[in-house]
Every structure is written in structure tokens, then in C-alpha cells.
Amino acid sequence: MAFKQLRTYVQKSGMSFRKVILGILAGMLAIASLFAVWYVPSVGRRASRSSPDKHTIAIPSSGAEWEGKSTAQLIALLDHDDLIIRERAVRELQRRKGVHVTDALIRVARGDPSEAVRLAALTALLMRHDARIYDVLLDALKRGSFEARLAAMGLMRSPFERVWERIVEIYFSDESPHATQYALRLLKRPPKVAMRAICRMLGTGIAIKDDGDAKLNAKQRELLSAIERVPKDALVELLDERDIAVVVGALQLLLKFPMDKAATKLVKLVNSRNQVVKALAATALASAPSHKVAKQLKRMVHSGDRIVAACATAALSAVGEGKLRDVEPLLNDPDPAVRCVAVRSLLQLKASHKRILEHLKRALNDADINVRLTAAQGLLAFGSTGLSLYLKHLERMQGDERVAMLMGLRGLKEPEVLQTLATDITNSDARVRWAAQTALASFGVDAISVLKKALTHTDPQVRAGVVQALMQIGGDAVTDILMHVVRDDPSEFVRITAISALGATCDERAVAVLKELLYDDNRNVAQEAGLALGRMGGAGVRVLKQVLKSSNATVRALVARVLASYGDPEAGELLRQLAHDATDDTTRIVALQALSRAGDVTAMRELIKLLSASDNMTRLKARAAILGLRHTMVMPLVRALQDENPRIRAEAAFLLGIMRVEMARERLMELLEDKDANVRRAVKRALQIMNASQVKAHTAP
User: Which residue, 141, 223, 298, 407, has most beta carbons within 10 Å?
Assistant: First the structure.
């Protein structure tokens, strides 16, 4: 409207409309130019004030000086070479507010080379209400160690379904062993918001076809076994989902966590066209029936589907309306799944114990292992008579069946059970030994004498398993036994296992023994003792700091490496001194590697410099140290590709190739034109290694 009015006015005045428009545009352009002259320099001045150079900032020497630093100065100090300064800057920023502070902490938590600094940044982020932190925590989960532990604590509180979907994906993807284990721990007791994602994964790949078999893969079985409890209301609600994978997953969980409140919905699902859904729903209904659906169950008994009929019979037995005459025909059904349900329903019947025991004894000879195990487990409900039959049957079993039956004895504190388990903790089959040791651990202090006797066995694998069982029991008596093992056992493997167990006790006597072991002639034992003391925290760390003053240079270096891995500044200073004063390359490289692992940027640069040493052995040792640090050294090696020294460029290129660092491929391609022939050869070799690994990955079955 305004445009038309302007045009009408211009025409009436006799002026050219085109000239008027061009004049207006020229005026607007002039105003914009004047604004740019004033605004851009002022923005530059403000930017320079808000982004101080980390090299020009005076390092604070007191708490008051740290508090006096501006937020911009603290953010700049996050890029300082000294990890102690970076960590202190993070702690100071923890009390500052603003999105830019959160951005800086996220950058540090993801990319700082020091684990101690990343941990400080993660701790600070956990106190902030920002949805982005969960993505940072998911990244930290993959790095393992303390970061993964802290990330798991933060992720546990996530209210977002997308985050739990990622946790489930991480578990099933196996992209990182550390992440997989921590993801599994998070999923053991899932909140309501996680249930849909868990059920979808438990049901994926099972119910694609109507005639598909409801078998879980290894990862699904592991997750289902690990889950300790579920929000039951959420589980029942998921039975109404349209996504069949979610429904199947929910049914799998209902088999493990039966609830009669789901009975009405399960009856509806029994009529599903999908055979897998129908079978799972019928089986779940048999595990937790309700009187409310008794009429429907009686109709289902006459169903043409044998599984449905069997489960309905079992459900009626559970609510007190089943008859032995209805169950007996099912015990001879050709389908083992039907026979398995029939055996379970026997235990719910109000019938003669003698007749039920006869049926169970016959089922022990069934051709199907699941029927036999179900019958054997049923025997334990009949007191001493059933237990006697169970143990007699166990004598004939081997392999997986024996393992399952031994696990079924957990918590049964009977003398004959203890005697059976005592025999099997020295079994030649490692799986059987593990099951017997696990079952014995459930006896608590009553099993200590049996386990102590087994520590004299000649096989170190047996003794190590016994140590693990003792660790599960705990207590002063166990600590005494473990202290004897770590000192006197002839096997390094058994001693290290016992050291790890001692470290979990947090007993003061254990601290003293572990301190002694720091001076052990076996370096692996001494190293494990140092790590165990570090994990104990408190008293353990205090002992390590005392040993830093030892006259034994080897022990000092070992303890310094342990403490440096936990970001201890005193240990870091000692390692720097050790690297500076070392008269041999091995000691110096070991010290530099420990400092680099703790995130010391200067040590990383020194380690890379050793790649240009004239001595071939020194270069090989430096290579080995860098490869041992793996991901910690990726960015320093990428930067070393631009080093003035051609030998360093060549070594860095070769190491990046060995480590298969794809992000460095573009930089390596640029170095194919390097003026130094050795660099070009190293780059070609690195690219060949990377290309070969890609081909292998693509052609793998």
C-alpha cells in the first residue's frame, strides 16, 4: 500500500519514479557505510578486550588473585601448556555463569589432553542445567577410567529419551569396550524414560516374520540377564505400542519380571496374528496370571495352538484352578516348549507330591535341555528329598547343563551342597569352576574354609578363581588370606589377582602390605600394588606420596607414574625432574610417557623431539612410548607434520599411519609433495597401511 502511494505521489509531482528509488537506495548505502566505519572497529576493540592472549596473562599465585581474574582471562588460560593451571582455571570457571563459560567447559571436557583437566571440566558441567552436557558425557563414557565413571553418574539422571537411546546404541554397537560395560551398568536399573529404547532393542530382529523364532542374540541375552529391576507401570504401558519390536521386548522383560496387572493386556496379545507375540504373551501370562482373566484362560485351554493351551493350563494352575489331568498330556507333547511349560505348571498344582515328583524325575531324562533344567529346578521345591535327587542328577551332568545346575545351588546352605561345590571349584572345565566359585561365594563366611583349602591347588587358574570368590565374600578373615597369597603364592597371575582384591577391601592392613609390594622384585606385581593403592584413595594415596621420597629410584619412578595418572601435581614435578636429570634414555622416556599420559603438553613435545635422535634405539623407544599412549598423542603428532625437522615429520607421518588416524589423511596427502624424500617415503608407507586396513574392513565377512 505504501509503495503504491509513493508511486502516485511521484507521478503527480512530475518526477521520475526510477530516479527517486535510486536516490533512496544510495542514501541507505551511505548510512550503512557510516555505521560500518563506527561499529566494526568498536567490535574489534571489544573482542580484543574479551579474548586476552594466554601468554600475556599473569599467572595468579593465590586464591584471591584467581578470583580476581575475569571470565575471559580464565577461558584463555584453558589453553595454557601447564595442566595444573588449566585445571585451576576450570575449577574457577565452575562458579562463573553464562553460555560462553559452558561452551568453554564443553570444549575442555572433550579435547583437553589431560584426564585430570577433563575430569574437572566434567564435574563443573554436571552442576549446570544444559541439555548439551549429555552429549559430552556420552563421549566421556567411551574413554573409560574415571571419566566413564563420572559420566555414568551424570547420565543416570538424564530425563531425555534420546540420551537413553544413545546409551542403548552404545551398548549394542561394541564401538568401545569401556563404553559397553558402563552402558550396561546404566541399563541395569533403567528409569521409565529408558524403557521404550530398551524394549525396542530387545525386540529388534526377533519378530520380523510371523513364524519367526523368539531367540535373542548374545548381546540381547546379556542385557536381559543384567537388568535387575524395571518400572513396571511403564512396562505394562508399552504393551499397547504399535511398534512390534517394542512389544516383543516388553514381553521378554515380563517373562523375567512377571506382574499380574498385565494379565488383561496379555490375554489380548495371545490373540495376535504374530506367532512370536502370541507365544511370548501366553508364556508371560502363565508366569503371572490373574483371577480376573480366569474365564478367558479356560477358553484358551481348548485352543488349537498347543503353546497357548499349555500356558493357559499353567496359568490356571497358578491361580488354583488347574488339574493334573489337564497337565499330564502336555508332558508328552512333541514340542519341547510345551513340555517345558507343563513341567513348570506341575509345581503350581494342588496334587500329591509323590505324583508330581514322579513326573519331575521322568522329565530329568527328557531329550531337551531346557525341560531337564526346569524339572531339576523344580526338585528344589521339595525339601531334602528333592535336593537329594537334584545332586544325584548333577553328578551325571557336564558342560553347560552342569554350569546351570551349579548356579541353581546358590544360597542353599546345606552341608551336601557345600561338599559338591568344594569338588567342582577344582574342575578341569573353567566354566564349571566359575559356577562353583560363584555359588560358594553366596555362602559367605561358611565357605571360607573350603576356599582356603583350594588355594593349595597346583593350577594357578584355580587359585586365581578362588581369590575372586573370596573377594566377593570380604571381611577380616578374607583380608588375612589375601595378604598371605600376595606375599607367598608362586604365580605372578595369582598374586596380581589377589592384589586387585586387596585394593578393593580398603583395609588399613592391606595398605601396609601393598606398600611392601611396591619394592617387590617383580615389576608387574609392584606396578599392580601401586595402582591398587591409587584406587583405594585416602590412605593409599598418602602412602604413595610417602614413597615418593624413597631412596630407590626405580620405586620412585613407578609411584610417580601411578600418581601422575591421577593428576597429582607433586608426582608430576618429580617426573619432570626425573626426565631432566636422567642419564639414560629409557628412564627419561618412561618419565616423559607418564607425564604425557597425565596430559603434560611439554612432555609430549619432548617425546616427539626424541623421534629425531641420532641413536636408532632411542628413536625406537620413543616410537614405542608414543604408540603406548595412542589417542593422547594424535593431535601432537598431527601438529608435528609441520615441524621444521624433516625426520620428525617423517616419524610423525609413519606413526599416524600405524595408528590408522583417518583425520590426518588430508594432511598426509599434502606431504606427498614434501621437499624431503624421506618424508615422502614415510607418508606413502603410512597411507598404504591406512588403505590396507580399510580394504580389510570392507572385505571382512
Answer: 141
Helix axes 275-287, 263-270, angle to 10 degrees: 150
Instruction: Return the exposure string of 517-553: e unless at least 16 CB atoms fall within 10 Å of the residue's CB, then b.
Output: bbebeeeebbbbbbbbbbbbeebbbebbeebbeeeee
Q: pLDDT digits over 175-191, tens only?
A: 677 788 888 889 999 99
List alpha helices for 209-302, DSSP H: 218-226, 232-237, 244-256, 263-270, 275-287, 294-300
DSSP string for 119-179: HHHHHHHHTS--TTHHHHHHHHHTT-HHHHHHHHHHHTT---HHHHHHHHHHHHH-S-HHH
Residues 6+ apart with CB under 8 A from 410: 438, 439, 442
Shortest CA distance to 251 belongs to which of 226, 214, 208? 214
Non-local CB neighbours of 79 within 8 Å, separated by 6+ positions: 54, 86
CA 677 – CA 683 distance, rounded (Å): 10
Distance CA 441, CA 413 (A): 11
Which pTM value belongs to this model?
0.59
Q: Do residues 336 and 344 lie in contact, with contact meaning Cβ atoms separated by under 8 Å? A: no
DSSP letters along 456-521, please? T-S-HHHHHHHHHHHHHH-SHHHHHHHHHHHHH-S-HHHHHHHHHHHHTT--HHHHHHHHHHTT-S
CA distances from 258 to 254, 283, 287, 291, 322 (A): 5, 10, 6, 15, 19
Cell numbers found for residue 498:
589377589
pLDDT of 318-371, one tens digit each? 767 777 777 788 888 888 888 888 888 787 777 678 888 898 889 889 898 988
599 or 701, which is more confident: 599
Are the C-beta atoms of 282 and 308 separated by less than 8 Å?
yes
Q: Is residue 588 a contact partner of residue 622, using CB atoms and an 8 Å limit?
A: no
Cα 558 from Cα 148, distance rounded (Å): 25
Cell of 674: 614434501
Of 350-364, 565-579, 625-639, the one with minimum mean pLDDT is 565-579
CB contact at 8 A, 423 and 392: no
Residue linked to cell 617383580: 522
Cβ neighbours for 74, distance < 8 A, ≥ 6 positions apart: 89, 92, 93, 96
Site of grid cell 530382529: 205
Residue in the structure block whose three cell numbers are 537413553? 164
The pLDDT tens digits of the residues spanning 122-143 come to 988 988 888 899 999 988 888 7
